[in-house]
Amino acid sequence: MNIPQSNLPRVVIIGGGFAGINLAKNLANKNIQVVLIDKHNYHTFQPLLYQVSSSGLEPDSIAYPLRKILKNHKSSFFRLAEVEQIVPETNTIVTTIGEITYDYLVIATGTKTNFFGNKDIESHGMPMKTVPQALNIRSLILQNFEKAAIANTNEEREALLNFVIVGGGPTGVELAGAIAELKNNILPKDYHDLNPDDMKIYLFEGSDRVLSSMSKHASKKAEAFLKDLGVNVNCNTTVTSYDGSKVSTNSEMVMESETLIWAAGVIGDPIQGLNKDVLIDKANRYKVNAYNQVLDYENIFAIGDIALMECKDYPNGHPQVAQPAIQQGKVLGKNLIRLINNKALKPFKYKDKGSMATIGRNKAVVDLKHYKFGGFFAWFVWMFVHLMSLVGFRNRVVILFNWTYNYINFDKAARLIIRPFKK
Ligand SMILES: Cc1cc2nc3c(=O)[nH]c(=O)nc-3n(C[C@H](O)[C@H](O)[C@H](O)COP(=O)(O)OP(=O)(O)OC[C@H]3O[C@@H](n4cnc5c(N)ncnc54)[C@H](O)[C@@H]3O)c2cc1C
């Protein structure tokens, strides 16, 4: 892999997501050799993927080159590779570009889309976990509009303009709101040959409310906001099969749709090599102790979405959102320095900063520990928090400019089929 040998202890980090980059930054220039490995050469800001899917943002404004994050860190290295195996007996990992040994290994590989074993849906549904997948959705939506404009029959047009989103968590809710804005603001302007009323957006959620991880107050408000935008919200309904055109549910509801977006859950994607039975829970997460040390291994750690830290306040582990990943990355950085200097480690304690979701322009819901609110102010808070959390000044400026432009013009400017999606 062409990483220089040195006397410095070597920390290999697998994954440049929220957890991995925060760890890498905290280890920079600390007399440690850091090797960051990712299968992409960029960090993805997943919370805004839905805006790429719905033509609100260009993909490059939510991605950031990983090498740029390390550019001033002389003993830090990036390698573009997929890690295929861990060999703990020899402190080695096997990757698509060769092998490398480590003194300390940190697994920060996040999760992948969970289709719950439903092969039909996996084959025909659209996941939204990466930038290329978000671009696929963008292309498919726009291609469907074009096809609907020349459809020969009402049935054909209906199937092209029925958009089904499965999963009423923040991702599904935010995406449904954004697609509804395409219907309300773009279709009437750009597509004179289509009737906006023919476009239908269905959101399916298996539990009894959307945003079930948030307060009932937030769920109620979010559902009302979605209905105002014209989204068909169906709670207590699970999608059971999809063959690329027919959507079946556990209720009476069956419909034809050319688009099914799957936002119903994630699951860990563990790397081969560690003892699977002992270490991995049913969500495929590595069980870790309070220092993010993978159980049974002294020099292997897991952080972020892929880590399961059972503790009093979070008996099923921390929520799989950005903040635990960021905080674990930072705390592990300090702990690794302590470990290398033979000092005692400090346990991780999660600081819950609240949760939020936005539903179209001017509307959002925010749950803080002692205060819950929704509407315009919440939307403002949502925008501020997301802008400040983005990696890179350029991305913040580009996104602020885009949001301002789109807000003033009721527009979504990235309506481009650059790379057509083939089913
Ligand atoms: C659509 C969507 C919307 C979301 N919205 C929000 C939100 O609004 N707020 C919020 O707080 N959270 C949100 N989340 C969740 C949040 O993005 C995750 O909790 C967070 O990204 C977890 O960080 P991580 O570092 O653990 O993993 P990730 O950020 O997923 O990073 C994992 C990295 O590991 C790399 N990788 C994986 N396997 C390998 C391998 N074998 N070899 C090499 N590299 C590998 C990947 O390429 C990736 O770069 C959202 C997630 C999605 C998908």
Keywords:
423 residues, elongated, five-stranded parallel beta sheet, binds flavin-adenine dinucleotide, alpha/beta, 22% strand
Report on the architecture of this protein.
It is a single chain. It is built from twelve helices and 25 strands. The chain is an alpha/beta fold and 423 residues long. A five-stranded parallel sheet has the order 5-2-1-9-21, with helices on one face. The protein has a five-stranded parallel sheet with strand order 11-18-12-13-14. It is elongated, with a radius of gyration of 22 Å. The mean pLDDT is 96. The structure holds flavin-adenine dinucleotide. The site of flavin-adenine dinucleotide (FAD) has 32 residues, from helix 1, strand 2, helix 7 and helix 10.
* Rg on CA atoms, Å: 22 Å
Q: Low-confidence stretches at least 5 residues in length (pLDDT < 50)?
A: none
Number of strands: 25
Distance from first to last alpha carbon:
37 Å
Largest sheet: 5 strands, parallel
Strand content: 15-25%
Q: Tell me the helix content.
A: 25-40%
User: Number of helical runs?
Assistant: 12
How are the strands of the largest sheet arranged? 5-2-1-9-21
Form type: elongated
Mean pLDDT: 96
Small molecules (ligands, ions, cofactors) in the structure: flavin-adenine dinucleotide
Which class do the helix and strand fractions yield?
A: alpha/beta
Give a concise summary.
The protein is α/β, with parallel strands linked by helices and 423 residues long.
Question: Could you give the topology of this structure?
Answer:
Elements: E1 10-14, H1 18-27, E2 33-38, E3 42-44, H2 49-53, E4 63-65, H3 66-69, E5 76-80, E6 83-87, E7 92-95, E8 98-101, E9 104-107, E10 111-113, H4 119-124, E11 126-127, H5 131-149, H6 154-161, E12 162-166, H7 170-190, E13 200-204, H8 216-229, E14 231-234, E15 239-242, E16 246-249, E17 254-256, E18 259-262, E19 266-268, H9 276-279, E20 286-287, E21 300-302, E22 307-308, H10 322-340, E23 355-358, E24 364-367, E25 372-374, H11 376-389, H12 393-409
Parallel strand pairs: 1-2, 1-9, 2-5, 9-21, 11-18, 12-13, 12-18, 13-14, 20-22
Antiparallel strand pairs: 3-4, 6-7, 7-8, 10-19, 15-16, 16-17, 23-24, 24-25
Helix pairs in contact: 1-10, 5-6, 7-8
The structure holds flavin-adenine dinucleotide (FAD).
